[in-house]
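Researcher: Batch entry, complex prediction.
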Amino acid sequence: MDWITQASTSAQKSDAVFFYVFGLSVAFLIFITALMIYFVIRYSRKRHPKAEQIEGHTGLEILWTTIPLVMFLTIFYYGWTNYEYMRQAPRDAMAVKVNARQWSWSFEYPNGKQSKILYAPLGKPMKVEVRSLDVVHGFFVPAFRLKVDAVPSHTNTTWFEATKLGSFDIECTVICGVDHSLMLSKVVVVPEDAFKAWYFGGDDAPEPKPVPDPPKPVAEFTHPGLAVLTAKGCLDCHSVDGKPMVGPTLKGLFGKQEVVLSGKAARTVTVDEAYLRQAIVNPMKDVVRGYPPSMPPTPLAPRELDDVVGYLKTLK
Amino acid sequence: MSTHATTVQPSYLEDTGARKGLMAWLTSTDHKRVGMLYLYSMISFFFVGVGIGFVMRLVQLTRFQNLITAETYNALFTVHGVIMIFLFVVPGLPAVFGNFFLPIMIGAKDVAFPRLNLASWYFYMSGAILAILSLFTGGGAPDTGWTFYVPFSMRTGTNVSLAVFAAFILGFSSMLTGINFITTIHRLRAPGMKWFRMPLFSWSLYATSWIQLLATPILAITLVLVILERAFGIGIFDPVKGGDPLLYQHLFWIYSHPAVYIMILPAMGAITEILPTFARRPIFGYKAIAFSSMSIAGVGSLVWAHHMFTSGLSSFSVMLFSLLTMIVAVPSAIKVFNWVSTLYKGSIDFQPPLLFALTFIFLFCIGGLTGVMQGALAINVHIHDTYFIVGHFHYVMFGGTGFAFFAALLYWFPKMFGKMYSKKAIYASWVPLFIGFNMLYFTMLVLGMMGMPRRYFHHLPQFNTGHEIATVGSWFLVLGLFMFFGTLVYASLKGEKAEDNPWGGVTLEWTIPSPPPVENFEEIPTITTDPYHFPQENEA
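Model: Structure tokens for the complex:
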């Protein structure tokens, strides 16, 4: 399926069941619709002036009770066995605590490390233990076909094994108040060694990224601003070539119209120099809509800030 | 069939008592007038719900949510749900066509408890007024979604208590109608009208009434508990006080899932009346359809937890409820096969009610099949609480119950109003209705598969295109609705006089004048044949 990303082993299971049921459904719908249209034409009053008074047929009733029953039971069985796979985490899965609250997600790993974005190693099972600190929320990762409710006083678990590198949406699916639709985050799937480097790297370890950038010697930086962006880790979440990552791309950003959320209110701003400076120093003030509010404030020296802003202007 | 030529009774539309005009309507216990009161009030609320839906679609047209705030949007989808469910589809066909036609179809002069019947309408209107008051008083319109899930519904500052109380009052309307219909069917059938000689619409009302009677009290109790929880903090649902939020979800769905069958069964019943009339032959598999109604009512009461597959139920419960959900799909499939077979070797007179009935079958099949997809656990995990669900239940509730309501209205309009509408105008309205409906709700199914959650004020950029298509669809749909109801309003005022039996139907309502006289029959008929017995030449 091109129009929906399939990025976990569970997604493959869920989609297999979906296509089975979808195939049967389309066949049934076409059959019933074609039959109705055919009868209406074939037995119209003009062609068939006298109706035959047929009251029923026991054999047919038995037939069309049994066939759907058997079909529905196969759907049940196929759906259930795959669901069992999707729900039961393997023993060696790393257990991550997912804390839901109005209106944000946070993640806590076994060694106590915490993050606002869920980092996961490629091809390794990860168990999620979902809890809520206030009302009911829903933890949903469409690309993984994974969903489980966060219910206060309960801990619900599920798991996944990512099959693709990249950044995937996390959305809340149970209405939880005003900012329900902004209760977003991302799962970032990274190579296992990058994950380990971050996981065991202590508090200062740079956040892992799906595709490591080729190392660039400082001398090769075409602009001093790019050197600052690289050094400060900005490019872990923002690309300079238009590629979507955790945060919006920096390419073509200057002069663009963006919808930002200032607290709860959405408004449209033109990205100018003043906005850029504020967005770097105080990123939580206006968050571009559709992205998780997870960028840390980045204090820069005045000279560095000038370089970055100057560089962003050149990224058409 | 033309014995009424000597009718001396006035039509039910003429005032015969001491009161005249509006007061005569508001105090009438005539089941036909009560049915009409429901018709006018329900259609009014329906259009309020349509208006809210229309605004929500406009909000989603772009990513610039400039029209309204998130608070207002959350209130809009809550109120849209409450109005459409409690004020339109739950009373639905029983309140209008059940009231009007059940006594006539079984050969009775009225329902068993005419005063209780009028009282039901007053409960309905009181609940409706309270629901509307809740929008403008207290902390503002409720913003929890129509499901009122705790603990959010306990903590929100909005006017949940009044809205919930409104639903509580509306429940009484539903229960009293249920009691009334059950008693009417048991006690007031005409001589010779054996159980298996009843028209199948009556059977569907009978099954529905039992659900209304048995399931609605559970909703009432649950809603009272929510009010007590909010007012006094009794702690039955609040996890902080040792309560359990999942208990609420169970109690809520123990009513609200069977409620889905309250909504759809009478719709199926109406379709079952329409098909034989236009095919000029008996319904295929009378008993299979009657029993399938009863088994839907029975098994349908045991599937509620399929709304909670992601809430953390045990593996065993999840397995069991998925299995039962699959089983309840079987009687619906049986009905579809029997309907289609009723067209076989008939002599089909293609008229507007038949077009809408066939459209119902098509849309209901999509609704039912997408329901089976959700019953399959591995798929449910993905699509639960997304636009897929929104698309699915609009196919069932609007494509199903809504289109059946339209079909029933077209079928019985000449009888109820004594006037005929322009068939061409109705065919013309079908085109935007059908195109708009599928553009709007099929797109929602696709959006849901892509991962668009329901009840979202903001949506992520990848869903833009889908939302644009859906919004344009909603414009066609609203256009079609105005054409449809415009045609009927015009016909009720200026339409040509309708014949007593314009479609050639054989159930009892077609043997009396249009509009029906006050006491329905000159003389209570004695029934000697099956309900869909079309007299043949050799026996005339």
